[in-house]
Write a structure and sequence with these properties.
homodimer, alpha/beta, Arc Repressor Mutant, subunit A, Rossmann fold, seven-stranded mixed sheet, two-stranded antiparallel ribbon, 9 helices, 9 strands
Chain lengths: ~210, ~210
């Protein structure tokens, strides 16, 4: 399969996947590097380099088969596997993640949510049961969990991450607005919403300067 | 003030701001480039270069005054201004953004939400009124809006962005899982949640290979 794939290429993979899914939905079966480049604001040669980089296929002059390329990139992204997910925190963010429509389509199945609020514990979000945080250890003992989503206040995030690690969870998607310490063998990807909004604010402030 | 600031430095600014806020909350008044670098997983010389880059201050050997540096970085990020925000879509994501506690603290004030669902229009999320999407143009005619948050399905995002542009909005924070066409003078920052989850999935798939 693919050889060394740079971080920059990895960061572009979800964009490829998203555009190819949109093209597939629109009924497009074949696309050239020129057309794909135009959609993605990359040069055709960049597109060809990227696709070569992850095990190039498609024949020069014929373009790429949309469904095949999407399937191939999906495999590289690990989207051909089923991921069992739990969500820590049944507030607004946890609920938004639980209801996000594309996740289940891409193989991410939320099997439980956890919260401390007595009015939430015992209820459901959609079909997903909300359990007490006290039950986290016993749940992890009985269920295989691939990914834990941290959707709780920053003050509780590190302690919860440590409990998840002790319970065998090795991948965390962190929405708590703080940076967490974790062992090397644990993968943590942060979604710092404030950072993104601050970048918008920065660009607004400095577009006025220009 | 600061001279040319590279994209890489700009992307690190919210991280500086977040760490300095945490330090301030913890009662730390002074920090060295060594200590700040350790927290942020950057070298002390990287920290000094970054801080010089945005109009360096602090005296060699004395470290940086936490509150001053935070204030200075906040200004660069435009957080000393009040931003009037509207949210398009009062579903899970829109509600999560409306309730996100740090935004109002950082000067982002949500003045209205918009939705098409009859059971939502006329209600409120917290103190924020939910208005009908039909009222968007008249609202924009009567109110100054700095930032519009797109928290609606991908299929409606482009049309809504065009309406916002026509109504004078020049900054969009986009949560719809699609890339949008927009005039150069409009600033669009995307939060593609699927992309972030797919990067996590990629890293999980490939850590097993190693």
């Amino acid at each position: 399969m693919a050889g060394y794939v740079s971080d920059a290429v990895i960061r572009r993979l979800p964009g490829y996947y998203r555009h190819l899914r949109e093209l597939e939905t629109a009924g497009v079966t074949q696309i050239s590097s020129q057309e794909l480049g135009k959609r993605m604001q990359l040069t055709p040669s960049q597109i060809r380099q990227d696709i070569n980089c992850f095990g190039g296929f498609g024949r020069q002059g014929y373009g790429y088969n949309v469904t095949e390329l999407k399937g191939h990139i999906g495999e590289i992204l690990g989207l051909d596997r089923l991921h069992k997910v739990i969500i820590l925190g049944a507030g607004s963010i946890g609920t938004a993640v639980a209801r996000y429509p594309t996740f289940s389509r891409e193989g991410f199945e939320t099997i439980a949510m956890f919260d401390v609020a007595v009015d939430k514990v015992g209820g459901t979000v959609g079909d997903i049961p909300v359990l007490s945080m006290d039950k986290l250890e016993s749940f992890l003992g009985e269920n295989h969990v691939d990914i834990a989503v941290l959707a709780l206040p920053a003050a509780y995030a590190q302690d919860t991450l440590d409990r998840l690690y002790a319970g065998g969870v090795r991948a965390v998607w962190n929405f708590a607005p703080t940076d967490l310490n974790h062992p090397n063998e644990m993968i943590v990807v942060n979604v710092h919403l404030s950072d993104s909004l601050q970048i918008l604010s920065y660009r607004m402030a400095h577009s006025e300067d220009e």
